[in-house]
Design a protein that fits this description.
This protein is α+β, with helices and mostly antiparallel strands. It has 3 helices and 6 strands; from the N terminus they run E-H-E-E-H-E-H-E-E. Helix 2 runs parallel beside helix 3.
C-alpha cells in the first residue's frame, strides 16, 4: 500500500523543453493528512504563462494553481500551514505578497520569503510552495 498519493504527475521533458531534463515529478503529494504542493508560478496547467513581466498577475495564477491542487488532494486554502515565496527582485515583494495575502486572508500561515537570483525559467518572476493539512473529521477517533 503506498504511503502517499502523487497528484498531477509529469516529466520535466515536457515542462522544460529548452533544458535537457528528464525527471519524473508531481505537482503535489498527499502523505497522511499533510499535503505538500510543489512551487507554483504564473503558468497554468496547460503550460501558458499568465502575466509576462507582471509579478502580481503571476502570483494570482500561482495561487489559482495552489487552490486547485489542494482541492484535488482533499484540502483547501484555509488549511495551509506554511508558505515559501520566492521572488526574483525585491521590488516584487509588495505586489506578490499583496496578492497572496488576498488569497489567504484569515488563514494566518507561517511564511518564509526569499529573494533569489532566478527561477527555472527566466520569465518567471515569483514562485510559491505550500504545506497544508487535511483536517480530521469531527468526531473521528
Amino acid at each position: 500500500m503506498p504511503t502517499h498519493t502523487r497528484i498531477r504527475m509529469f516529466n520535466t521533458k515536457a515542462t522544460y523543453p529548452n533544458q535537457s531534463l528528464d525527471n519524473d515529478l508531481c505537482q503535489a503529494v498527499r502523505a497522511g493528512n499533510t499535503v505538500y504542493v510543489r512551487g507554483q508560478v504564473g503558468t497554468d496547467f496547460e503550460g501558458r504563462l499568465v502575466g509576462l513581466g507582471d509579478p502580481a498577475a503571476q502570483a494570482d495564477q500561482a495561487m489559482k494553481n495552489v487552490e486547485q491542487l489542494l482541492e484535488e488532494a482533499g484540502s483547501a486554502l484555509s488549511h495551509i500551514v506554511k508558505t515559501t515565496t520566492y521572488i526574483t527582485d525585491p521590488r516584487f515583494r509588495e505586489p506578490v505578497y499583496r496578492v497572496v495575502g488576498q488569497w489567504l486572508e484569515g488563514v494566518f500561515p507561517i511564511s518564509t520569503g526569499l529573494v533569489v537570483a532566478g527561477l527555472a525559467q527566466p520569465e518567471w518572476l515569483m514562485e510559491i510552495d505550500v504545506i497544508a493539512v487535511i483536517p480530521e473529521e469531527e468526531g473521528a477517533a
